[in-house]
């Protein structure tokens, strides 16, 4: 396969629809939450990622991608932008630390299976006194990090742009890198949801984790098996719904917020048809070939029902069926919180797929009240 | 008690790590300092310092060489005087001793005196208050006061005695070492250039400094300490009248360019390499005596760029060519700074900056490219379609088409519109069709039908009457050619069939030749009847034409008609008539109807229209679509708005507002965009799938590269850069100066006349300057404004010996004439509207002296006196002196008489002979010169004024046009041997 063909394949699979699907589908096979996934995880050898060899190959693959990108005329422009340097760092560091955690967890899991205590239990090298050891180590780390920041600032000039002019905004107008995940959400959600409700829920949800998590196993040592569902859910939210969206926003969103593969030229003239329709239009106009009812509540009734079912009926059904055990263990308060944050998180991929599959704009669309879901 | 014995980590190991990381930290901090202080400008300054040392060393050597001999001489003299001085050593020593004693004594005496004076003042106050409050019971202070005053006098005397003694001794000493001092001063004077160069060298060259100075020279540039007085520092000029726009506010420009372009106004560096070379035009720029001193204008107000940048890249240099770009990339790691809105102009466009202060003229000295650009914007009519707020169109550039039915045939018009260049290779009419984006068969077919419709519209409802080509209107073509060459047609027209010989419209002089069309192929275009009538009176056919009336006689007009009609373009004649395709015409009709109606209605409506109706309909739409009315008056479009984008601020448009289409290989700069647009106006349609009516439609003017560069300069000049009121040069000039200048250009006065030292190409074509149209330098001072207006309105013969005629510009109204006259006066700082009659005192000595001079001068050899003809032959004839008093300004006449060549180089008018006082002092002078001249005893002014006064008393008929005309009709006009006759010099006179 020629290099150009490889590049066009990478371009093609980087499209959010494909890459997001691949990540979502592959995810449980790398972080298996159930026995079934675990079985395939073992059978297909995905577990090897969490070995030393796997880690090195992972790092090499990432490096190969960036090297390929560096020598590509188009990718070079986005890759070497001073603004995007943190994202390159982020990809490396996130991969490394997730791998490190999983590597250690897998080692411990094996030990636990063999009836041994986890590594951390009897590793005196890892024991640290706050004073003087930890403070000292942190102080050294601080100095080294300071050096890193200084060198960075010497070598790469601050990416300052022209004086802000409301009449001439840059295209694409990108948020700072740490907000690019949110900006990506704006493609699918109304600003009050993507910009206000979701960020609030993310913060509250992270704060709530210790109160919802009553699994006492894994305290003080790395383990995957003993808390695989928790790790799976968290990792999916963190890697796929946050980091991956930042990477997309940084490298793959070009002029007019259109999607561009990493090796594609950012052509300002690229046009993508965005014929998005609301659920009410799908139902009343496309299905029934009637006009929209003039009463807003009737018009949006289907959407309201869908949201109601998703938020209130679905949990009840789950309590009765699949999550009966969970409900009993966690009790009503924890379970409700879990449901609120869990369903909120799940709403993002659901909405993304609805958009891709049926061009759905809003489930509930009441622009008259500035209320869209 | 805390016991610190539990340890899990090896503290020594941690200490080691701490040591290593601290060391790395220290290194990074050092790096910070180095990075902070190795600015690019310092590298240049160090290099420049070396260069300066070299230059100064050379200077020093040169100076030393120059004074070598005299230096020895003066040094010897100094030694000699030193010897004499030392022979008086004892005397000097004793005087010096006495002086030092005296000075000590004086010190004390002066102190006593000052002390007593303070006391006196204190008592004086007490005495004065006593004088006012008489009832005081206390003892009076008056006695004390008097005593104190006596004492003060005594002390003053003592002090002054010492002063006198000191002075005496000093004089004595001075007398002794006077010679010595003088020879020292003389030596210093000889060596002053050497001393200056040496001093400079010592301050520059570290190796010549004393040890302490050397340390100081290093320390002053150390980091942090360099805040005080560094040698290597950022030089900056704050230009208070030029502001940089940061969108919400503006900031005065701070130019740091001179941090690297060191001593740019020092002419010594002319041979140095960039960035140290001298500015190429110090007469106009930078120096304090130039009109644009560095302190008030800085650099970026002309060159643009990022004024605060102190490195090559950060100051936003823009390469002038691809080679330079590659060169810079190699040498300076050059890259475009994307975030700076106003990158430097590439060198070739710097003149665009002149416009922001000089908005009033397209004849700015030193801005030839901008001048050409602005002129072309006018002439090509760019500003007819594109509004340019600061350079507005001064009228339609193309002919009025409302009477086209009297002049042209529809067939000719259609072929012309299709491709004007197939008829006239250098026409100003741009090509709307057969362009880059019209090459598909479909579009080409549509275009043919659009042309047919436009032609139809132009002739619609008009009776076609082109006139006849019959002998009645035709004379002798050979005579016609002569008339074409002599009467003044060539002031504005050429008649050149060979494209390679045609003047290129890139110089001022050539542009004036191309004011009107190149008169070729008239035989293929118009009838003799029409042309004859047009030549007789252009305004009859087109009131707004710029073509003036040359007052041709019937025979002249016939001859000229015959000459012009002789020329035909046979290839154009052979071109096929455009064929109308009713299907395509219907498609066009429907397309236009669809714009306002649903398709169904459009089709229905079109089907009800006859072919003629369709033609008229599509014609009207097409004219509006292509904007023909921008340059032509067309019925139905008299109030139409121009179709082009406004270009008032085109030069400041940001790149995202310029549509480069789908092209990536054109450099993304505003000037490249404009250049390409001018070169290939439809270029940005390449690759696009546009609806036929959405295609780009700017026509192609086939500009040459020089023209493109000039027009681009002008368009870049149309920008938002504002400067403070103080810098606006044109604000200092009254409005009529700009308007007058534009009018003079519009009517091409400079095709025939020299105005503001430009123009007058016709004079060269005619031959000796004497027979060409006069130069109009000093016209504002020269002519009486009232007379000038009457002359403009009805020109009469002034110079009877010339054939070329001042035409009648009936299309210029009085207001415009007034503006033109004021403009002439403005050039000469002559701000007067009306002038009283000049009253001559006929009894004065001066008057009689003038009379005598006039008699001696034999003015009547050449000049007319009313209807009285001159003595000499027609080739030397000169103006009617009876006209002088109404026509000329008395002050100017004196200047003219003083030295005519100064005012009008090449004139045959000799300066009248004015006797000097030497000649007039001779005993028998009175016999030759008359007593009045002798009385003036060589006062030149008085004599010239007297002569002027005499001229004012010459009476006679003023307008002798008819008499002159009759004479030439009878005797013919043939000066073939005129030049030989004219060879006379002042002795003969």
Q: What is the CA-based Rg of chain B, rounded?
A: 43 Å
- Relative helix content of chain A: 55-70%
Number of strands of chain B: 8
Q: Provide the β-strand percentage band of chain A.
A: under 5%
Oligomer: heterodimer
Number of helices of chain B: 40
Strand content of chain B: under 5%
Brief overview:
Chain A has 373 residues and is mainly α. Chain A has 14 helices and 2 strands, in the order ααααααααααααααββ.
Walk me through the topology:
The complex is a heterodimer of chains A (373) and B (989).
Chain A: H1 3-14, H2 16-30, H3 35-43, H4 52-70, H5 73-79, H6 85-113, H7 130-155, H8 180-185, H9 191-212, H10 228-252, H11 279-287, H12 296-299, H13 301-320, H14 324-358, E1 365-366, E2 371-372
Antiparallel strand pairs in A: 1-2
Chain B: H1 11-37, H2 40-87, H3 89-132, H4 142-190, H5 192-204, H6 211-219, E1 237-245, E2 250-255, E3 285-286, E4 292-293, H7 294-297, H8 300-303, H9 322-332, H10 368-380, H11 382-385, H12 404-407, H13 410-418, H14 441-459, H15 477-486, H16 508-513, H17 528-536, H18 538-541, H19 554-565, H20 570-574, H21 582-594, H22 599-607, H23 611-626, H24 670-679, H25 705-717, H26 735-746, H27 749-752, E5 754-755, E6 758-759, H28 761-766, H29 779-782, H30 785-793, H31 814-827, H32 845-857, E7 863-864, E8 878-880, H33 884-887, H34 890-898, H35 900-903, H36 917-921, H37 925-936, H38 940-951, H39 961-971, H40 978-982
Parallel strand pairs in B: 3-4, 7-8
Antiparallel strand pairs in B: 1-2, 5-6
Helix pairs in contact in B: 2-4, 2-5, 3-4, 4-5, 10-25, 13-14, 14-21, 14-23, 15-19, 17-19, 21-22, 21-23, 24-25, 26-31, 30-31, 32-37, 32-38, 34-38
């Amino acid at each position: 396969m020629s290099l150009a063909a490889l590049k066009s394949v990478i371009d093609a699979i980087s499209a959010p629809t494909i890459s997001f699907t691949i990540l979502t589908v592959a995810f449980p096979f790398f972080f298996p939450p159930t026995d079934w996934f675990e079985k395939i995880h073992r059978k297909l050898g995905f577990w090897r990622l969490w070995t030393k060899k796997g880690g090195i190959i992972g790092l090499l693959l990432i490096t190969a991608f960036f090297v390929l990108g560096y020598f590509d005329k188009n990718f070079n422009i986005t890759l070497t932008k001073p603004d995007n340097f943190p994202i390159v760092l982020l990809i490396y560091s996130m991969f490394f630390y997730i791998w490190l955690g999983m590597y250690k967890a897998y080692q411990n899991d094996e030990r636990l299976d063999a009836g041994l205590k986890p590594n951390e239990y009897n590793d005196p090298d890892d024991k640290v006194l706050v004073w003087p050891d930890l403070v000292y180590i942190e102080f050294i780390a601080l100095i080294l990090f300071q050096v890193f920041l200084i060198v960075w600032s010497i070598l790469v000039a601050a990416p300052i742009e022209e004086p802000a002019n409301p009449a001439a905004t840059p295209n694409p107008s990108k948020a700072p890198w740490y907000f690019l995940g949110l900006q990506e959400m704006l493609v699918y959600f109304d600003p009050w949801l993507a910009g206000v409700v979701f960020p609030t829920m993310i913060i509250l949800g992270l704060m709530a984790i210790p109160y919802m998590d009553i699994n006492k196993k894994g305290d003080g040592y790395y383990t995957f098996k003993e808390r695989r569902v928790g790790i799976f859910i968290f990792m999916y939210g963190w890697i796929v719904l946050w980091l991956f969206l930042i990477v997309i926003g940084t490298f793959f969103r070009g002029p007019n917020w259109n999607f561009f593969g990493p090796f594609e030229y950012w052509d300002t003239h690229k046009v993508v048809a965005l014929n998005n329709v609301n659920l009410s239009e799908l139902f009343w106009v496309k299905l029934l070939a009637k006009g929209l009812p003039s009463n807003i509540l009737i018009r949006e009734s289907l959407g309201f029902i869908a949201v109601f079912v998703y938020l209130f009926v679905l949990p009840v059904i789950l309590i009765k069926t699949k999550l009966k055990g969970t409900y009993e263990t966690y009790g009503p308060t924890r379970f409700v919180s879990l449901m609120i944050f869990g369903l909120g998180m799940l709403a993002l991929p659901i909405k993304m797929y609805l958009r891709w599959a049926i061009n759905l704009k809003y489930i509930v669309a009441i622009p008259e009240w500035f209320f869209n879901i | 008690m805390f016991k610190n014995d539990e340890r899990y980590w090896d503290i020594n190991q941690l200490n080691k790590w701490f040591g290593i990381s601290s060391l790395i930290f220290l290194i990074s901090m050092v790096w910070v300092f180095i990075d902070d202080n190795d600015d690019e400008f310092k590298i240049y300054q160090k290099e420049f310092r070396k260069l300066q040392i070299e230059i100064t060393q050379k200077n020093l050597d040169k100076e030393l060489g120059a004074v070598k001999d005299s230096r020895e001489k003066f040094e010897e003299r100094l030694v000699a005087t030193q010897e004499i001085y030392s022979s008086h050593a004892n005397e000097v020593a004793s005087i010096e001793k006495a002086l030092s004693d005296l000075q000590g004594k004086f010190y004390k005496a002066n102190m006593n005196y000052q002390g007593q004076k303070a006391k006196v003042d204190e008592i004086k106050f007490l005495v004065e208050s006593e004088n006012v409050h008489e009832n005081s019971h206390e003892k009076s202070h008056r006695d004390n006061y008097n005593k104190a005053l006596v004492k003060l006098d005594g002390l003053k005397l003592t002090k002054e005695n010492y002063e006198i003694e000191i002075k005496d001794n000093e004089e004595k000493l001075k007398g002794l070492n006077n010679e010595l001092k003088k020879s020292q001063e003389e030596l210093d004077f000889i060596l002053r250039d050497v001393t200056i160069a040496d001093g400079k060298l010592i301050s520059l060259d570290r190796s010549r400094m004393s040890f302490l100075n050397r340390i100081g020279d290093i320390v002053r540039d150390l980091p942090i300490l360099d805040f005080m007085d560094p040698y290597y520092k950022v030089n900056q000029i704050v230009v208070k009248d030029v502001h940089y726009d940061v969108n919400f506010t503006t900031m005065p420009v701070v130019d740091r360019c001179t941090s690297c372009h060191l001593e740019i106004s020092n002419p010594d560096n002319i041979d140095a390499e960039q960035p140290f070379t001298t500015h190429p035009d110090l007469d106009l720029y930078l120096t304090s005596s130039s009109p644009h001193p560095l302190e008030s204008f800085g650099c970026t107000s002309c060159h643009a760029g990022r004024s605060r940048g102190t490195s090559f890249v950060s100051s936003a240099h823009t390469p002038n060519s691809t080679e330079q770009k590659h060169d810079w990339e190699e040498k300076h790691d050059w890259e475009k700074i994307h975030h700076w809105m106003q990158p430097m102009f590439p060198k070739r466009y710097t003149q665009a900056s002149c416009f922001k202060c000089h908005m009033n003229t397209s004849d700015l000295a030193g801005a030839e490219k901008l001048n050409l650009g602005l002129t072309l914007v006018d002439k090509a009519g760019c500003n007819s379609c594109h509004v340019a707020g600061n350079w507005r169109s001064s009228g339609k550039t193309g002919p009025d088409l409302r009477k086209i039915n009297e002049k042209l045939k529809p067939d000719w018009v259609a072929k012309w519109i299709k491709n004007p260049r197939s008829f006239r290779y250098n026409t100003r009419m741009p090509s709307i069709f057969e362009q880059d984006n019209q090459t598909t068969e479909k579009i080409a077919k549509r275009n043919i039908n659009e042309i047919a419709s436009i032609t139809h519209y132009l002739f619609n409802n008009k009776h076609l009457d082109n006139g006849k080509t019959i002998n009645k209107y035709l004379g002798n073509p050979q005579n016609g050619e002569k008339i074409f060459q002599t009467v003044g047609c060539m002031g504005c027209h050429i008649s050149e069939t060979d494209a390679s010989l045609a003047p290129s419209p890139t110089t001022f002089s050539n542009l004036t030749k191309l004011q009107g069309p190149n008169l070729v192929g008239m035989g293929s275009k118009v009838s003799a009847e029409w042309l004859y009538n047009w030549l007789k009176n252009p305004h009859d056919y087109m009131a707004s034409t710029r073509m003036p009336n040359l007052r041709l006689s019937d025979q002249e007009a016939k001859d000229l008609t015959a000459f012009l009609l002789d020329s035909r373009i046979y290839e154009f004649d052979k071109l096929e008539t455009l064929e109308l395709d009713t299907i395509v015409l219907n498609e066009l009709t429907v397309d236009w109807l669809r714009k306002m109606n649903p398709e169904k209605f459009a089709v229905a409506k079109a089907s009800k229209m006859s072919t003629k109706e369709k033609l008229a309909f599509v014609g009207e739409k097409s004219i509006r679509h292509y904007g023909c009315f921008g340059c032509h008056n067309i019925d139905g479009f008299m109030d139409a708005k121009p179709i082009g984008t406004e270009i008032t601020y085109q030069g400041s448009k940001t790149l995202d507002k310029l549509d480069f289409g789908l092209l990536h290989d054109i450099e993304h700069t505003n000037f490249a965009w404009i250049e390409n647009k001018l070169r290939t106006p439809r270029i940005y349609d390449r690759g696009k799938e546009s609806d036929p009516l959405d295609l780009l439609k700017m026509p192609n003017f086939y500009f040459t590269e020089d023209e493109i560069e000039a027009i681009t300069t002008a368009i870049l000049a149309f920008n938002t850069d504002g400067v403070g009121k103080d810098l606006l040069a044109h604000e200092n000039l009254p409005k009529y100066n700009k308007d007058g200048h534009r009018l003079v250009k519009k009517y091409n006065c400079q095709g025939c006349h020299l105005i503001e030292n430009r123009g007058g190409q016709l004079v060269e074509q005619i031959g000796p300057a004497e027979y060409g149209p006069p130069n109009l330098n000093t016209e504002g001072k020269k002519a009486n404004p009232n007379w000038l207006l009457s002359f403009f309105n009805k020109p009469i013969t002034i110079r009877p010996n010339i054939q070329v005629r001042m035409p009648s510009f009936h299309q210029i109204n009085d207001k415009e004439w007034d503006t033109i006259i004021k403009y002439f006066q403005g050039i000469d700082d002559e701000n007067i509207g009306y002038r009283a009659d000049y009253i001559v005192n006929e009894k004065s000595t001066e008057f009689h002296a003038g009379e005598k001079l006039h008699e001696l001068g034999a003015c009547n050899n050449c000049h007319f006196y009313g209807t009285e003809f001159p003595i000499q032959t027609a080739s030397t004839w000169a103006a009617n002196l009876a006209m002088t008093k109404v026509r000329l300004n008395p002050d100017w006449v004196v200047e003219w008489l003083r030295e005519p060549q100064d005012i009008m180089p090449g004139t045959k008018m000799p300066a009248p002979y004015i006797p000097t006082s030497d000649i007039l002092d001779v005993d028998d002078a009175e016999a030759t010169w008359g007593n009045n001249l002798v009385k003036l005893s060589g006062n030149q002014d008085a004599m010239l004024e007297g002569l002027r006064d005499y001229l004012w008393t010459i009476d006679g008929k003023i307008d002798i046009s008819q008499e002159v005309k009759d004479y030439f009709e009878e005797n013919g006009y043939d000066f073939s041997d005129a030049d030989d006759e004219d060879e006379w010099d002042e002795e003969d006179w």
